């Protein structure tokens, strides 16, 4: 397949240009998350006033979880057949930002945007490490880009954790 493509050897000028572009991309990335003990720090600050500030702005629109490459929340249900003899079990995408996602029997466990946002952030940046051995944030910035009210996960985590190394 490759022999059919009109490929050319890479020139030194092209390699230099690629390296410059790479270095420029590194230089313009100014956002960062707190570097150590995120789980402990986030859980020690569950009553931080910033949670309430973010909750007032957050629309629970699920844009952040829709575009996140690591979010995988889902719901499951049954679709009964019209004849009533069988049903089909199904699984569909859901978001931890919807009230129904934490519905348990007769009540919604996380009944406010504050509780849903706090659950999402503490899980993604904190408890994810215990479950999967790494952060639930890959640093792509999609959640920041797609948030209609401009919530920046790096800024929020830095404020809640008491660090000021964000842009």
Would you write up a description of this structure?
This protein has 167 residues and is an alpha+beta fold. It has a domain at 33-71 and 100-160. The protein is 43% helix and 11% strand. A two-stranded antiparallel sheet has the order 1-2. A two-stranded antiparallel ribbon has the order 3-4. It starts with 11 loop residues before the first helix and ends in a 7-residue tail after the last helix.
Could you give a quick summary of the protein structure above?
The chain is of the alpha+beta class and 167 residues long. It has 7 helices and 4 strands, in the order H-H-H-H-E-E-E-E-H-H-H. Helix 2 (38-44) packs antiparallel against helix 5.
Quick tags:
4 strands; 167 residues; 7 helices; two-stranded antiparallel sheet; alpha+beta; flat
List the topology elements.
Layout: H1 12-28, H2 38-44, H3 49-57, H4 63-67, E1 74-80, E2 87-93, E3 103-104, E4 107-108, H5 113-132, H6 142-146, H7 153-160
Antiparallel strand pairs: 1-2, 3-4
Helix pairs in contact: 2-5, 3-5
Question: Biggest sheet: strands, sense, closure?
Answer: 2 strands, antiparallel
Spans of 5+ residues with little confidence (pLDDT < 50)? none
- Mean pLDDT across all amino acids: 89
Number of helices: 7
Oligomeric state of the chains? single chain
